[in-house]
Each structure stands twice: as C-alpha cells, then as structure tokens.
Amino acid sequence: MEECSFTQTQTPSQVRRNLEKRSPEQVDQKVGEVLQYLLVKDQKKLPIKRADIMKSVVKEYKDVYPEIMNRVGRTLQQAECRAAEEGHLSLLTEQVFGLQLEEVDTKNHIYILVNRLQRVEGDNMRVDDNTGKLGLLTVILSLIFMKGNVAKESVIWETLRRLRLDHGEKNSEFGDLKKLVTEEFVRQKYLEYTRIPHTEPVEYEFRWGPRAVKETSKMKILEFVSKIQNKDPQSWVTHYKEAMDEAATPARH
Amino acid sequence: MAEASRRSGGSGRTPSRGSAECSGGEEQEEMPGEDGNSGAEGNEETRRHIRHKYRELISSVQQNREDMLSSRSNRLTEVLEEANKLFGGVSRAREAALDAQFLVLASNLGKEKASQLHSDMIVFDPTAFAEDLLTFMGLNRLEGVESDDEEDGMANGFLPSDAWQRVGIEAEKYFKRAPTFHYMLGSFKMDPPVPKQRLERQKQKPSTEERRAMPAQLKKMEESHQEATEKEVERILGLLQTYFKEDPETPISFFDFVIDPASFARTVENIFHVSFIIRDGFARIKLDQDKLPVIEPAANEGQGTEQENQSRYQGVISLSPEDWKVQDEIIETFEITDPMIPPSPASE
C-alpha cells in the first residue's frame, strides 16, 4: 500500500503500540466511520481535508490515525479481493469499493477519491445533473490542453458561447454558468482560475486543477478531442508527444 | 516573428522599443529632451489624437483576437505597421506607455501564433472544435429556431435538450471519476419518520375529547378559587375593621382572631387569608406588653405609599393539628369559645 502512505505524525512502532490499547472492533468501527464520511463527502466532489477527518470522525483515535487511514485506503481500493486473511472478516474490511484515496495537496493534506476501475460502455451508471456538468468540464479541459495547458478566459467563454452557453445568462441546465465554471469546478479542484498579472483590464486564465490530473490524463483528453473531431490522436503531433511523455513519467504520489 | 522584426526595423530606436513591453521607464528618460524641442501647447491636440488612435488600435486587437490568431490572416502585421506609424509622432511618456501596452498585446498574440506553428500539421481550432461538438450533441441544423441576425458564424439550428448529457456520457469514459453513492431510500433528512407519525395519530384520536374538556374545567376551577380567596380576604378585613371600630382601645389578639375552635382547617385558612391582608398593608401585627401578637387594621389610607418604603418582614408560623389540639389549652387560656371569624357561607 505504498501509494496511500499518509504523512505520519507517529512512528510506525508508536502506532503499533497505540493500536494494542484498542480492541480490533473499536478500530474497525472507526475505519467504517471514516469510510462513510469520505463517501458522503465525495457526493459533492469536494476535496476532503485531513483536518476535517480528524475533527469530525477520528477524534480520540488520533494516535492510530495512520493505521486507520491505511485500512481505509485498502478497503477503498480493491474490488475483487476479499480481506479474508485479515483474521476478523467484517463487512467493512471487505475490500469492495474499487476506489483510490489520493492526496491532491500534500502540504495541506487534502484528499479526493478516484475510481480505480475504468468505466465500461453500458454500465448503466446513473445519469443525472452531474453528467451534463462533466460534459461541460471535459470541453473546458480539452480547450485548456489543446491551447497549450493554459487558456485565456476569453477563449473559454467564446467557445462556450458557440455551444449556446452564454456566461452572462442563467442557463436552464447549469444555472449560473460563470459561477459553475469559476467557482464550483475550482472548489472541486478540477480547474484553476488565476489572474494574469499586469493586464488591464483584468484578465484571467484557466489551467487544469489537481483533481483533473488525477481523474483523467492528457492522453484521455486528446482521445476525447480526437473522437469529437473525428481525427487520429497522433495527427496532433505535439499534443500527442506531450501526452505520451506524461504517461511515461510515473505519477507523483 | 516576421512582424516583430519588420517593426523594429522600421523604428530608429530599436533597443528601447524592444524592451518597451516590460518598462516604459527607458523611454521616459529620453522624453525631456524631445519635449523641449516641441511647443507644448500646440502639441496637446496631436498628442490627444495619438492617444485616441492607440486606444482604438488596442481595443480592436482585443476584440478580434481569434481573427488575428487565424493562420490565414495577416491582421497582426497590419496592426503592427499601423502602430509603428503612430509611434513616429510620439514624444511624451504617456503616449509611449500606450505604445508599450499595445506591444505587450501584440507580442502575446505573436507568442500564441508561434505555438500554433509548432503543432505542425493540424492546428487546434476552438471554433472547429465547437462546431464538431454541436454536431456530436445532435444539433439539427435544418430546424432553425435561433435568430438569423447573428453574423459571427454562430451555427443555427435546434439543439436537443439532452445535448450536454450526451457529451457527459461520452466524457465519463475518459475519467476515473469515483461514482458517488446514493442512499436507495434517500438520505436521513429527506425521509420523514413515518412509523412515528402513525403512532402519534392513533394516540391523538381518543384523547381529543378529553383534552377539549380539560382546559375548560381547569380554567373554571382556577377562576373560582381565586375569586373565593379574594372574597374571603375582603370579608376578613371587613370583620377586622368592624372589631377595631367597636373597641379601638383594646388590641385584638392575633390568636383570638384567627383560631376557630371548631376546625383546624379553618384556622389554617384564616391564617392564610390574614397573611394577604398583612402583605397588602391593610393591617399589621405587633407584639403587646406580654409579647403576644396583636393585630390591628392600618391606621389610614395613606398607609399604602408608606408601605412601599418599608422593608419587608416575613414571619413563619407553624401549626400542626397536634398544636391545634393543644390549643384547647390556648382556647381555654384565651377563652375562645366562638370563632371571631365565622365560617363564610360559601365554605359551608
């Protein structure tokens, strides 16, 4: 479980000693609580702060936090393997979710959940408001990547206007479009929205946020653009090369 | 790139122009010298004109960004040449700053154009991307509902309501997005406590009649009780005042007054009622020479205000049936044969 190492405030031996003070059931219970907390928090796709996990769930189990999070990470991950070797087989420690806990901000310890499983065609996943939003987000991420990993705000709005979305108007599907793009997507860490220095009038530009990096990749987005434009991904030579380079460098966890 | 070199070639002051985008300061240094050559007043008009021209140029560049970036267009070159001509007339820092601002804009555009050249065969064109997306969304170009007055190449046609859903469903394949879980029966908040409600309803039905009757009854009792107390207090005060008037010289013994030799309950009641009289200042209790409590009505009506200034004293009298029985002695001692306060007709 190297991928889900958490910054530890105690040494492993300390944690082990602390763990002996608690009954396995108590720790399992906490693991379950943290799991549920993460899943509920993820409903809105907002990043989860370690401080909040501590404050709201872990509480007095702080001294065994690394162990709890290790188990949470393990529980979230595997879809096929059951933790039968764990001695005490409870429903919670069955590794059933197929999700991965990722730290998107190592300084402030902010986590997100990502899917470890690739989506397949016709998996009958729920289609709701978020589906349309994801479509919009993907278009924006595509524009950013294809424009060289940073896109001026004007380019985004101009393209969206061509797609019948005016950022000054309320939209029946997305509500306040500007708010959705510059606030919600930003809070969810899909986008970064920053002011371009020394511009008069003030201009902003968009970049990919850390969640976008974790949930998708340059290659995936290039594939999306290619599909829409009915082209071979390799026909965008530089973009393709960049996407290959990204895939080749191991992800920084 | 070609534009930039042409531009600097046309200007005699190449070195300072080249760095103009990062600082207007260099040009400012040169300004005072040139400023001396020209008549200040006469130039004001031309300077304003130059500034106006620059602003026009800048806003036109900002508005036509995409057009300028298009590989087919030669607009960037044209705009730069125009600015170069304008710069010929610039003599002061203010105009030069505008020129610098324009140059920032132009070089940004140049940079973007250059990066487009990099992408070799195919240039990513947001406009074409948007067109293809509309097609993907299922745009029906034949059914034009959109107005035709849009001239900037906006595609007309009817966009189905699930257009973005279509894009979203496609997009999901490119994401490792964790599917959010949902409670099958909704979350806690949305779920009303159904069984609890049912229980309440069942309980309520039989109790409605009872409840309706109860408050009325209670209210009546309370009212009558209060009235009775008031009446009784008034009656006793009246008795006290009559006794006092009959013989103002002899003080009335408290025990003589309150004790009913025939009934312990009425004795207690009497003490209770007298306490109101004392509290409201209509009478007072003091000790006579034998240290026995005597009661007399308050001297006059002015007493009320005086009373407020006086500090309040509380006295506790305990009286049990045993005491009262022993009071047989008291009764004998005080020679109480008949109650001074006859029982009120109501209580009988």
What does the model show?
The complex is a heterodimer of chains A (253) and B (348). With 253 residues, chain A is an alpha+beta fold. Chain A folds into two domains: 12-121, Orthogonal Bundle (Arc Repressor Mutant, subunit A), CATH 1.10.10; 131-216, MAGE homology domain, winged helix WH2 motif (Arc Repressor Mutant, subunit A), CATH 1.10.10. Chain A has helices at 12-21, 24-42, 50-58, 65-77, 129-146, 153-162, 177-187, 210-215, 218-229, 237-248; strands at residues 48-49, 99-105, 110-115, 151-152, 170-171, 175-176, 191-195, 204-208. In chain A, the strands form three sheets. In chain A, strands 1-3-2 form a three-stranded antiparallel sheet. In chain A, β5 (170-171) and β6 (175-176) form a beta hairpin. In chain A, α2 (24-42) packs across α4 (65-77) and α5 crosses α9. The radius of gyration of chain A is 21 Å and the shape is elongated. Chain A starts with 11 loop residues before the first helix and ends in a 5-residue tail after the last helix. In chain A, 33% of the residues are buried. In chain B, strands 1-3-2 form a three-stranded antiparallel sheet. Helices cover 61% and strands 3% of the residues of chain B. In chain B, α1 packs parallel to α6, α8 (126-137) packs across α9 and α10 (194-246) crosses α12 (264-279). In chain B, 17% of the residues are buried. Chain B has helices at residues 2-10, 14-18, 25-37, 40-63, 65-69, 75-87, 93-118, 126-137, 163-171, 194-246, 254-258, 264-279, 303-309, 321-334, and strands spanning 252-253, 283-287, 293-297. Chain B is mainly alpha-helical. Chain B folds into three domains: 2-25 and 43-119; 136-192, no CATH class; 207-347, Orthogonal Bundle (Arc Repressor Mutant, subunit A). The chains are: A alpha+beta (253), B mainly alpha (348). At the A-B interface, β3, α5, α6, α9 and α10 of A face α7, α8 and α9 of B.
